[in-house]
Amino acid sequence: MNNVETVRRVYDLFSTGDLEEIPDLATEDFTWEYCGPPELPWAGTYVGRSGIDRFFGIVQDLIEVEHLEPTEFINGGERVVALGISRARVLATGVLESYDAEFQGKTFSITIYPAGEDAVISSALDITGRKQAEVALRESEQRFRELANKGDVPGIVKASW
Question: Are 58 and 38 in contact (CB under 8 A)?
Fold first, then answer.
């Protein structure tokens, strides 16, 4: 199983709630990084099987995932980046955790999480540029695939004397 297949399998298992198999997919140098503000309890870097257990333990205790849709897995060799959409409820409050929203032609990533008994912290991050870059990257990759599949890719030769 290559790296993309492994990460895809982790998402599949998490989506179905079958968390017991996930640590078996991780080697001791496997690194899982969840990007988010430092106030988000599960944001951070988790290494190896024990790290994966810790990450999913934190997540399972704090939120109930309602929707998890990986939309793209970007293969960077030793690094795989998963892009997607998730929606969850914070178990303590029932507050919606994260979603993307469009407003006046811009896309925002909205995050809401509890900050005590009667409070939440919310953030709206303008991700319009990232979304546009994702579209441009997909289009560029598609054009390259089409060229490569035709076999008409020009070679580049560097010669020096």
Answer: no
Distance of CA 160 to the CA centre of its chain: 44
SS3 call for 96: strand
Instruction: Return the number of other C-beta atoms located less than 10 Å from residue 17's C-beta.
Output: 9
User: Residue 69 has what pLDDT?
Assistant: 84
Q: Are strands 31-34 and 79-90 parallel, antiparallel or unpaired?
A: unpaired
Counted residue by residue, the chain has a size of 161
d(CA 48, CA 36): 20
pTM, two decimal places: 0.55
Judged on CB neighbours under 10 Å (0-12, 13-18, 19+), 56 is buried
Which of left, alpha, beta for 7 (phi over 0: left; psi -120 to 50: alpha)?
alpha
Contacts of 109 by beta carbon, 8 Å cutoff, 6+ apart: 98, 99, 100, 124, 125, 127
pLDDT in tens, 99-151: 777 777 788 887 776 666 666 666 778 889 988 999 899 898 888 777 766 76
Q: Average the pLDDT over each of 7-11, 46-50, 122-126 and give the range with the smallest value.
A: 122-126
